[in-house]
Amino acid sequence: xxxxxxxxxxxxxxxxxxxxxxxxxxxxxxxxxxxxxxxxxxxxxxxxxxxxxxxxxxxxxxxxxxxxxxxxxxxxxxxxxxxxxxxxxxxxxxxxxxxxxxxxxxxxxxxxxxxxxxxxxxxxxxxxxxxxxxxxxxxxxxxxxxxxxxxxxxxxxxxxxxxxxxxxxxxxxxxxxxxxxxxxxxxxxxxxxxxxxxxxxxxxxxxxxxxxxxxxxxxxxxxxxxxxxxxxxxxxxxxxxxxxxxxxxxxxxxxxxxxxxxxxxxxxxxxxxxxxxxxxxxxxxxxxxxxxxxxxxxxxxxxxxxxxxxxx
Length: 312
Ligand code: F6P
Hints:
Blueprint: H1 8-15, H2 19-40, E1 46-50, E2 56-58, H3 59-73, E3 78-83, E4 90-91, E5 99-107, E6 118-126, E7 139-145, E8 149-154, E9 160-164, E10 170-174, E11 185-188, H4 197-208, E12 212-213, H5 219-228, E13 233-236, H6 249-262, E14 266-268, E15 288-291, H7 293-303
Parallel strand pairs: 3-5, 11-12, 11-13
Antiparallel strand pairs: 1-2, 3-4, 5-6, 6-7, 7-8, 8-9, 9-10, 13-15, 14-15
Helix pairs in contact: 1-2, 2-3, 4-7
Bound molecules: 6-O-phosphono-beta-D-fructofuranose.
């Protein structure tokens, strides 16, 4: 940090966004600092409970959720807090609320015991539009806990990266991040034996055209790599036993799709833009193809007229 550093707080002020939205994003960044410290405290204990998706919870999964919930719902203009760790959303008693917030407190936490990167994903929606489509989102961000803790953010005015410096402030490191039309890496989720044939043929196409494999099993670091390298493709497809794939539309896909589009990329479920998919229930899942335009459009050519639930 030096005298030319641009702090997140100042950046948000200069962006001219709604002051309450500014405070909300700043609050999320403070929660991110606490979660970053929790992870450094090396508590890898299982909580002995499962979340709504029947995944085993770590103590830090629950703690991260509590930190975010307590800090976000204390803001008297927040209406609804929806967390991937909880079955239903929490409605606040606040009068005249402006925003509803979706949170995946610690995505990829099964990677904590092997010391790989994990992340927090946040979507900010107008108060009454949490269950709608992703098109109304006001802001989206993720915090990536790797060798550095970074925060990647958009409020619809480009995508910007901040790094948590030792003094405890998020400082701007990259502004107006853009993806190229085409990249050279691919990150394919799901078991190959479970892929539908259209997806398998598409991935084989990437392999024979010399795309390099880059998959850690953490959505935030895997997407972050594609964004920061300027392109490529992350996919988590429809599976034969799970036609809606694995990843959650509200908690994971809407925020990343918003960021991706803002960086000049694309995100679809194979054919339909992720942000146009209608959310019917909080924990709804969807397949995803996200990254630079060339690869996402190419995926669509494999899905035209194909059946998501076919067998190999
Ligand atoms: O949704 C949790 C998550 O861990 C994501 O972060 C990641 O992209 C995905 O699941 C990995 O799934 P799999 O273990 O099937 O590759």
